[in-house]
Structure formats: C-alpha cells, structure tokens
Amino acid sequence: MHDTARPDPPFRPPVATLRRDGDAIAILDQTLLPFRGETRRLESVGEVAEAIRMMRVRGAPLIGATAAYGVAIALAADGSGNEVLDRALAALGATRPTAVNLQWALARMERVLRPLAPGSRRDAAWREADAIADDDAATCAAIGRHGLALLAGIARRQGRVRVMTHCNAGWLATCGAGTALAPVYAAHVQGIAVEVLVSETRPRNQGLLTEWELRQAGVPHTLIADNAAGLLLARGEVDVVITGADRIAANGDTANKVGTLLKALAAREAGVPFYVAAPHSTLDFACADGTRIPIEDRDADELRVVRGIGNDGRVAELRLTPHDAAAANPAFDVTPARLIAGIITERGIAAPGELHGLYPEQAR
Ligand SMILES: CSC[C@@H](O)[C@@H](O)C(=O)COP(=O)(O)O
C-alpha cells in the first residue's frame, strides 16, 4: 500500500483556480467559498490587482501566477511599451506585501519581456504566464512526492498518520495540488490512512477552504478552532504539522499565515515535528532573516465582521463588534528556523538552514 515509487495519478482540481480566457483570465472567486463556486472574468490589470488585494485569489503561488497573467492582460489591452509594462508591474507589485511569490513572478515576467521589442512582448507575456502556471503545477506534484515519503514513513511505523495544518495551502492556493496538502493528497491516493486536523484560521477562515477541499477529495479530516491546536498537540493527537509558506528567508525563518508560529511553538513543546512545504518561488535568499520579512496589516474589519451563509442561502455578513472597536489585524507571522524540522520543496526535504544546498542557483 505504501509504495512511494508508484507514479502519481495526475491530480485534477475539480475546478481550475485560474485559467486563460482569451485576452482575459477566469478565476475561481475564493471570497464566495465554501458557499458558492463562482468564476469571475478579469479583463484589466486593475481588476487583477483588485482580485489579489481583496483575496478573490489567494495563496502565495496562485497570487504569483495571477499577477503574471495580469501583466499579459495589461500588454494586450493597453499596448506593449515600457510605460504600460512599468505601470502594470507597479500596480500588481503593490497589492500584497508578504508572499514573495508575487515579486518573484513579476520579476520573471520583467526579465523575459523587458529586452524584447514592444511588438513581440504581447505573445511572449501570455507564454511566460502560462509557463509560470504550468511550472507551479509540476512543482506541487514534486512537493507531493517528497512529502509522501515523510508521511509514508510515519504510517509504516504506526499504521496511520495524523497531520495538523493551518490556513489553506491546498489546490486553492496554487495552480496544482497545493503545497502543504500535496503530500496529504498523494498519501490518500496511495491508500495510506491519513487524517488532517484543520484549524479554522481566524480571521479570514482559510481553514474552511481547506475543509472544503479535503471533503471534496474524501480525505478524513476534522475542523478545529485555532485555539484547540495546543491541546491536541499536547495530548499526542498529532503526528506531524505541515503548513505552507509565504516567504522563507535565507536562514530558514518562515512567514506564513498568522497563527502558524503558535502551532510551531506548541509542536516543539509536544515533541511533534513541524514541517513547511513550499516551492522555489517562496524562497527569498536576499532576505537574511525573518525580521526583514514585511508583514501585511489588513483591514481590522476582517476581525469585526464575519461572513457566512444565511437561512435564505445568501452569503451574509454579521457584525461582531461596534464598528469602532479597536482591533489590529496582522495577517502573517514568522516562525524561526529553529522550530522547523524541515522544508519540503520540489527538490527534496532540507533543514531550514540548508536550502542553499538545494537551490545553489538562487543562492548566488
Ligand atoms: C500555499 S500559500 C501559504 C499558505 O499557507 C498561506 O499562508 C496562505 O494561503 C496565504 O494566505 P492568504 O492570505 O489567504 O493569501
């Protein structure tokens, strides 16, 4: 049953998170999930920037791929001169600060497009954006294979594996099978008894997206309140914690959705290994350590107001506090490298301080 050498059946998300649609893109609007799965067509760079800022598309790798298409849309709509290119790169680059995949994708687009004559930029932009999306899908599959070996090892010893995760780092966050969830899907397909503890991830509740994904895939899972994680880890009800990442500094310090650090601390106290799963586009070797990672502060109304579905089946908002209740909403935190057992990448699993060895070309 635990045959990690068996080739993966191709992972097919039930719906595309992102696809080209003529000179536009179609995204799955994640602000309506898990209640409604609606596609939204984005036809201008302004609409793409809005979709990223408002988290209609979200998750570090998916944000990067979407921004790349945003550049292609700008060049198709407004002409391919330097001014249009500069404006598109600036508008998209200003949408969200923490996930480095956004800057990585824009830099890759610029590297390819800048040297070209304006007349040949348009097609090249679509080709490069497609390549970024395709590479991300392949990268997710490889992360899945490497993480599978880890989960299979645990399951061989004890017959099953209980994974805790935070936020959403599944197919909704990428163009493929996901990062943290890719090993889970790979294990499930191989018949390994894998169960996932899913923390709801206040305030934007991305854990509910994870719950929705896992339910669709038939992977056994349990939703928990964020604050229950420490208890479950201390009680020995978790074998391994795996989260995604939004930026990994040169020393291995890792930014991820706020609440990740508390899980890493509780995991260390309980003796449970804490892993991060991430592609090369999340590595930022130019950033020496976690103190240099910009942390996004989002609108405090994300705490004051909850979204849900009313009895009439409509998405509804419910105010939890008076509108002027003092609130702060840092959206990410940084887990120090010393709390991380390993980083699961598409090239293998490395200790956080040893990523340079796996990615020498990025370390230069
Ligand atoms: C696969 S991206 C890393 C995730 O774990 C995560 O932090 C994330 O989904 C990013 O958050 P979001 O703010 O929803 O874009």
Automatic annotation (TrEMBL):
This is Methylthioribose-1-phosphate isomerase. HAMAP family: Salvage_MtnA. Catalyzes the interconversion of methylthioribose-1-phosphate (MTR-1-P) into methylthioribulose-1-phosphate (MTRu-1-P). The record marks 167 as: Transition state stabilizer. SUPFAM superfamilies: NagB/RpiA/CoA transferase-like. InterPro entries: IF-2B-related, IF-M1Pi, IF_2B-like_C, Initiation_fac_2B_a/b/d, M1Pi_N, NagB/RpiA_transferase-like. The lineage of its organism: Bacteria, Pseudomonadati, Pseudomonadota, Betaproteobacteria, Rhodocyclales. It comes from the Bacteria.
